[in-house]
Amino acid sequence: MFYWVVKAILWPFLHFVFRPWAEGVDNVPKEGPVILAGNHLSFADHFFGALFLPRKVISLGKSDYFTGSGLKGLVSRAFFSGVGTVPIDRSGGKASEAALNTGLRVLGEDNVLGIYPEGTRSPDGRLYKGKTGVARLALESRAPVIPWAMVNTFEMMPPGRLIPKLGIRPGVRYGKPLDFSRYYGMENDFHVLRAVTDEIMYALMELSGQEYVDKYAASAKVEMVRAAKAAKEGS
């Protein structure tokens, strides 16, 4: 219920201030389990990605977002609950397995699961290599995968910026469902997982128009920090 209350409050405000747009909303099934696999450009993606859908979009987040104390902890819990985030329970093992199990539970309850295969926000607006967790979710749950491409959110609110820029219209494109039924039963084959993930990332590249980089975003961030530090020391 809280999700819909937050959405009802945000929709008119965001629509009036930013004039967001969407394409392909009808590609998202009206019922049953669905995986929305998207690029991740900005913190603003949490606001605009699901804004046009009549279904609740659930995403996975660290349990730390829900366990903080004081005013900051309260605001964090309220925000992430309001945008449909559920905490990942890490008490049973590794974080990746916990995320997979939680995602399968969400899909098993016929929900829409939003996931960012890059694993983190793009540091420069380009599209980076996807992690294979999305492929495991797709093959084990057998839920349809919808490419979910955010547009202009990096320009509007790049990493590190706290206040969105006005005058830039954010958008979202929902692609046609991707069919991976030919791979069912092969979720333990790494080469299959890589092929499925790469197909998803290719669909996102076509939808978003981003340049693709064949490396993980987290690695690119580390390289950028090192390069900036070296440049500073050499100046």
TrEMBL record:
Keywords of the record, alphabetical order, are: Acyltransferase, Transferase
* A biological process term (GO) from this entry: phosphatidic acid biosynthetic process
Q: Where is the Phospholipid/glycerol acyltransferase domain?
A: 34-153
Name the InterPro entries on file: Plipid/glycerol_acylTrfase
The UniProt entry's GO CC annotations, sorted and at most eight, read:
plasma membrane
Please provide, alphabetically and separated by semicolons, the GO molecular function terms listed in this UniProt record. Answer: 1-acylglycerol-3-phosphate O-acyltransferase activity
Q: Transmembrane segments in this chain: where? A: none
Looking at the record's lineage, which domain of life comes first? Answer: Bacteria
Cross-referenced PANTHER family: 1-ACYL-SN-GLYCEROL-3-PHOSPHATE ACYLTRANSFERASE
What's the name of the protein?
1-acyl-sn-glycerol-3-phosphate acyltransferase
